[in-house]
Target: 4-deoxy-L-threo-5-hexosulose-uronate ketol-isomerase
Amino acid sequence: MNYDFRYAAHPADFKNYDTKRIREDFLMENVMVSGEINVVYTLYDRLIVGGAVPTDKPLKLEPFEELKADYFLERRELGIINIGGNAKVTADGTVYELGYKEGLYLGSGNKEVVFESVDPKKPAHLYLNSATAHTKHPNNKVTLDMAVVAEMGSKESSNERRINKLIVSDVIPTCQVQMGITELKTGSTWNTMPPHVHNRRMEAYLYFELPEKEAICHFMGQPDETRHIWMKNEQVAISPSWSIHSASGTSNYSFIWGMAGENKDYSDMNHLTQQELK
Model:
């Protein structure tokens, strides 16, 4: 299990970052690595993001030094969404099977969490979001047919998309973690446009279902001082609460959004127009 640590940045300082610094602080490049668990601990609402790709051996979720915990979920909750082959997740002896685009919520207090692939030749790609938890909620598997669905955008504005709200308070109880999948329709490339910000929570995006030779241009920063990050398939962009989070791709794609903070109301956001961006 590998981990990295990211400090928070003031938006006034962020304005002076070059491309290298932006990528170092806000991009997680190696998320899904065969036979490994890779996570980033960010000081934006202390969200941990990462991926697990079990192959011929199970992978156990272990605590690392900065957690100062006896086990990973001692004071944390965990959201998982599978974007690979069929998976088994065992939490304190209970086995949950996850197919493609199926999610699992694990509450605080689960002492042993183990990831496995049903077929090592078609390994699971398990995307992980973990936030601090003030109480214990029950473990819950969530499938797409349980999701709260919103159809957004249009073909004319190149942002026709389906938002599947999976691990959200309207579906299951959580402390902070909120996760879902947005799927762009064929011919659409823009996500989260018109843009918004929400000071009460941060967000992270994992882009996937992007063809190998295509790319994503993720936009971030304050609305009047934007920057961009070029990204590949199955990489994560970390978005502070003061930043927009939007992208356009050279193909349509999907992404998993995950949020943590003091407010779980999905509609709680400050909307902006395209004309306000600079």
Remarks:
- The mean pLDDT is 96.
